[in-house]
Amino acid sequence: MPDFITLPDLALRSMGGSVVAASDESFAEKESLIRPGRPGFQAETFGSKGQVYDGWETRRRRSPGHDWAVVRLGVPGVIRGVVVDTAWFKGNYPPHASVEAAAVEGHPAPDELAAAEWTEIVPRSELKGDAEHRFAVTAPGRFTHVRLNIFPDGGVARLRVHGEARPDLSMWDGLGLDLAALANGGLVTACSDEFYSAPNNVIAPGLARHQAEGWETARRRDGGNDWLVIRLAGRGVIRLAEIDTTNLLFNAPGAVALTGLDGDREVELLPRTRLQPDTPHRFRLGHHDPVTHVRVDIYPDGGLARVRLHGHLAAAGSW
User: Fold this and answer.
1) Which domain of life does this protein belong to (predicted)?
2) Would the N or C end of the chain have less CB density within 10 A of its end CB?
3) Which pLDDT value is given to residue 1?
4) CA–CA gap between residue 64 and residue 190 (Å, rounded)
């Protein structure tokens, strides 16, 4: 199993995550926990509640108990690791934390979540101030929500929940979907180079706002080409490919090719085809054999903003 930090953050706001409840947020709002990017800080920036922090901070607790925050994962999945980041919280961080997870289908309200069955995935562990704490998770099963417990109070800048997406794809029965999308269970399983940015960016939700939100490789000097392999949400037939080079003005690939993989079998989905910079490209595909993975070859190097592979599952359900 690769380092869990390379897997998608299932709780991220841009993945659809939400902090649905918290015991307290007197000094800094709970929503900051799942914000994209590194926490920021500017010293001696005071508001009506004190120093402004890019994170979640509770009041000083004067009663028994501890503080907590409940996060709905943007995409349900198998959790492989959790990061509790206390960046910039130096004299006001919680000395200990634990994390629990639950599987609650539908759209539960906070009181329904409170009554759910919770599984401890990170035991009560010591924290340090202004530090990133990584905890590997071995609990089996698919979860929809996590609860961060801090003992007894204080501030946490970010909570990252890395894992493999396991959405319920039954609602797509008989309909088309993006078989590559992270939100549907797609995952980049191999990549030739990720010097500038992570390959899973190309299958993230939404549009890339700038080139760092896509996948970009170093400049090749060896005459070869760069590539990545996408494990689809499930074995399926791809009808339409979208290859988006938006924001890649002078570093877009010159061409792309798509190859479907199904066991030992390879299927040419799109022959080597010219690309333009800063352009969303759409290609209808004529091959109708189901595949489980797709290799995206770019020539010779460069970056892609997004890859979408629209089609149908060959059978109900995902992996």
Assistant:
1) Bacteria
2) N
3) 43
4) 49
